[in-house]
Amino acid sequence: MRTGYRLMISVAALVAVMVGMSGCSSAGSDDDSESWGVFVLDGASAQPSVMPSDDPAGDDPDLTMPTPNSRPSRVPAAPFAPHTASCPRALPVHPSLPRRAGYITWRDGRVTSSTTSRGGQPVWRAAPQWPSSRRLGTPMTFVAQIALNDDVVPGGAGHTAYLFVSAAPGLPTWDPEQGESAVVIQPGGSPVVPTRPLRTGPTRHDEVEVAKLATQLDPAFVPEADGGVGDDVWSSIAPEKVGGTPAFLQYDEFPECGRVDRLALQLELGTGVGYVFVTDDLAYGKYVEQY
C-alpha cells in the first residue's frame, strides 16, 4: 500500500516540477483543491527578483543575521544534509516512545498566537522575525503557524512555531540545510536564517484555516532498517497532525542527523508531505519535504 502511494506521489511531484518550470500561477485561484500543493505567492510573480549573493544582508539595515551562538550547544550544527554518506540513517537521538498527536481537521476560525493555522499572516508572540531566502535575500512565504504543547516537547506550551518556505521555483526547499525554509519559534527562539522585523509579508494563501485537533496516541517510531511500521500503522499516522510520530514518505529523515527529532507538524502538500521538527530547548526548528 505505502509503496504504491509513494509511487503516485513521486509521479505527481514530477508533473508538478515540470509545471513549475514553465511558470507560476497565483495561489489565490478559484481551485482551492490545488492551491495548497504548490508554493506560489498570492497575486505576485514568484520568479527570483535578486541574484544569489554570498552576502544576503548587503546594505539592508533591517536584516538580522544569525550568529554562531544562535544554535544551542545541546543541538550542534551539522555541516551536511541528513541523508548524505556522512549521515546515512538520520535516526532520532531520543528514545522512540509512543507520542500523543493532535490530528487536524481544517476549518474557518479566528487566529491568535496560540492557534495552529495555515494561510493568512502570522500572529507573532514577540517581535516579528520574518526569514529571508539564503539565495535571493527576499522574504520567504508564510505557510503555517503551530501552537506547540507539552506533548510535542516538554515545556512547549506557550510557544508558537512559524513555518516559512521560499516560493521561487527550483529552490531546494526540501533540504533543511539549504536556507530556503525556516522554522521560527517564539518566544525565546534563535532563528538560524536571516530575518527582518516584518509583521506581514508574502503568504501561501490569503484565506486562513484553523486546525481543530483530535488527540490520539501514535506508536513509537520504528526505523526502516529495523523493518519500519506496517502499512496499516503507517496509514493511521500519515494524516496531518501536530506532534506524534512522523510517517515518512521516503527514507527516515530527522534533521541534523537526528538531533532535531521532535515532530511539531506533519502537513500535506498535495504532491508530498512537509515535516516540521523543533529542538528540545525550543531554540529553532527545521523543515523537511518528501515526495
Automatic annotation (TrEMBL):
Residues 47-93 are annotated as: Disordered. Keywords: Signal. It comes from the Bacteria. Residues 1-27 form the signal peptide. The keyword Signal applies. The keyword Signal applies. This is Uncharacterized protein.
